[in-house]
Amino acid sequence: MALYGAAVACLLIITIIRNEIQIWGGRAATVSAQPAEPAHITTHICSVFGDPLPYAVVYVGGRVAQADSTGLVELAGLSPGRMEMTVFAGGFQPLTLEVQLEPGANSPVIKYDTGLWPESFMADFHIYYSSEQRALLGILGFANGTAEPIYVHRAVLHTPQGQAIADLLDTGGGFEYFAGLSSKIRMVEEPRKALLWPARTWQPGEFAPIPGVFAEGAYTLEVHWGSEAEHNSGQYQVLRVTSYLDFKLSGNPHANNK
Fold first, then answer.
1. Is the peptide bond before 80 cis (omega within 30 degrees of 0)?
2. What is the value of pTM for the model shown?
3. What is the largest CA-CA distance in the chain?
């Protein structure tokens, strides 16, 4: 700590001397150039799906800052210029990008194509209720952050009480729907029906409306996915994601993320 304090003190003294006064041959000359206005970063840290990542950590210009519970991070007093910015979040791959910091406010976009990839496989799942259609609607997407293709076999929606409502892939043409969203995604029939999801591919979508009367509460999506070997053997990994149904909310849950 003593060494760190001494180094900071030396830097402070050098900065003051350079910015305020120059001494040559015993004469003092006021420096005319004014220091550049510092740069400030204000942005939301999000995944490739645009979901905020609470408490993500940002490292840039030798400085470290942590996002709040909404993914918002603010960092002031940075030197303008081009530098690397690295972002860390639990369960996600570190992201490093080059940013050009201008004097004053800066808001680098860390979302969608520039967002964080999952370490492995991730499902994007949000539900809401449409009173006009009297149906349960929702957003469904998958991201494969690995270097190998994976197979998505099932995506079963459960009520807050644990009752299965529907397989969102096997009903309403879900398999065909996702295979039609991207030329990279394929539907396979053998040895069982699944979506062949390529490496480093993310794709958002929606699931077909589910008519009926539904109660508010936490709904769970159970996704069965696996490697080629796991798909061939029928031994899938299971991922569970929860989304809370609130009748006061509707529309795209990503719309309010800046």
1. no
2. 0.81
3. 88
Residue reference for tokens 């799942």: 125
Structure token pair of residue 195: 């979506």
Say which residue, 36 or 112, is predicted with more confidence: 112
Q: Say if residues 257 and 45 touch (Cβ distance below 8 Å).
A: no
Cα 70 from Cα 32, distance rounded (Å): 43
Model confidence at 38: pLDDT above 80: yes
Question: What's the CA gap between 200 and 143, in Å, rounded?
Answer: 7
Q: What's the CA gap between 122 and 134, in Å, rounded?
A: 29
Radius of gyration of the chain (CA): 25
Cα torsion for 72, 77, 79, 80, to the nearest 10°? 60
Report the DSSP beta bridge partners of residue 137.
128
pLDDT in tens, 186-242: 999 999 999 999 999 999 999 999 999 899 999 999 999 999 999 999 999 999 999
How far is Cα 63 from Cα 14, in angstroms, rounded to an integer? 20
Q: If we measure between CA atoms, which residue out of 178, 168, 180 comes closest to residue 125?
A: 168
Q: Which residues pair with 124 in a beta bridge?
A: 141
Residue 101 has which token pair? 């910091």
Torsion-angle region of 213 (φ positive above 0: left; ψ -120 to 50: alpha; else: beta): beta
Rounded distance between C-alpha atoms, residue 250 and residue 11, angstroms? 53
